[in-house]
Amino acid sequence: MAEREGMLDKRLLAYAIEVIRLTQAMPKTMAGRVIAKQVLRSGTSAGANYREAKGAESRADFVHKLQVVIKELRETDYWLTLARESRLLPPAQLDGALRECSELTAMAVRSVVTVKRNMAHEKNE
Q1: Which domains are seen in the chain, by residue range?
Q2: What is the C-alpha separation between 117 and 4, in angstroms, rounded?
Q3: CB 20 within 8 A of CB 44
């Protein structure tokens, strides 16, 4: 699990950098600025929240903080999808970020499921 956590941390950091680049490329229209700001906030906070989760005080706290990561990634997916569908950027420019967002979300969800399963097994022992 530690190896997966390290990989998730690195991928979230790389994702935040990609989000920064994408938001800088968005048009300076009112819609572009609003959506860029939303993408920037949620897309970069996922990694920061994950770092916070790694310092959790308990497994339950870890799960709670990881669920915040999932929430931020899902929000980012929404805003990137909106940017794609409204053609703020060419779809091809957003497809990779959307795919990575989906993969990161799946990794975080698997971590939550694993920790919850382990907590349930410990409780039943």
Answers
A1: 2-124 (1.20.1440.60)
A2: 17
A3: yes
